[in-house]
Amino acid sequence: MNDMSVASRPFGETVYQSLRSDIIMGRLRPGQKLKLESLRDGYQAGTSTLREALSRLAADGLVRAEGQRGFEVAPISVAGLREIAALRLLLEEHALARSFEAGTLDWEAAVIAAHHKLDSHEERLESGDTSDVNAWRRSDWTFHQALISACGSRVLMQTHAEVFDKYLRYQMIALAFRPSASRPEHRALMEAALRRDVGGATILLRHHIEAGVQHALGLGTLNGIEGG
């Protein structure tokens, strides 16, 4: 997640971030053709600016360049979900251990605050209120970032954020809230963080991510939208 305000960004960066967000949030669907003519109107940008943004997104793995045929949104697949979940787990486990070791009282407060917001969204989802599912997914991202925020490595944090964004893309399209499961798992992760229980948190995290993947596969939400 880019921490520059929209007002302070160069225009090309704003276009890139807007396209990136629309891909991650599922507004631009897997396999969708990205025609420059239609993008010019939608993003109020010129051809060269759009080409530069799409080339950056291709390097990110979110867009696929098709030579003379232009660009399309990168496809998703069961194999892709498993791969990105495994990579997220690898990075997050490492960052958790470093963060738990170095975390201060301010870090604990940030973890508690992020969990409180996430828990509020999950309580509403449990009650059947699905009016703001996207807010739950954003608060989920924020909570997991808070857990590793004391790891002491900006590179690790940035890499995790980029991988989590790709995981979030799958979450927006294929993953779903697991009633009566996600909420206690997140609470247990917070409590393990406050105890600095690296071993317990690692076990919890593995189960949390793997259960989410299995839930998506069980729902069959990737059926019909796999490609490439």
CATH class of the largest domain: Mainly Alpha
Number of H- or I-type helical stretches: 9
Low-confidence regions = 3-8
| Separation of the first and last Cα atoms | 27 Å
Please state roughly what percent of the residues sit in beta strands, choosing from under 5%, 5-15%, 15-25%, 25-35%, 35-45% or over 45%.
under 5%
Structural class: mainly alpha
Q: What's the β-strand tally?
A: 3
Q: Which of globular, elongated, flat, extended, rod-shaped describes the shape? A: globular
CATH superfamily of the largest domain: GntR ligand-binding domain-like
Overall structural domain count:
2
CATH topology of the largest domain: Four Helix Bundle (Hemerythrin (Met), subunit A)
Largest sheet: 3 strands, antiparallel
Mean pLDDT: 89
Radius of gyration: 18 Å
Helix content: 55-70%
What is the element string, with H for helices and E for strands? HEHHEEHHHHHH
Q: What's this model, at a glance?
A:
With 228 residues, the chain is mainly alpha-helical. The protein is built from nine helices and three strands; from the N terminus they run H-E-H-H-E-E-H-H-H-H-H-H.
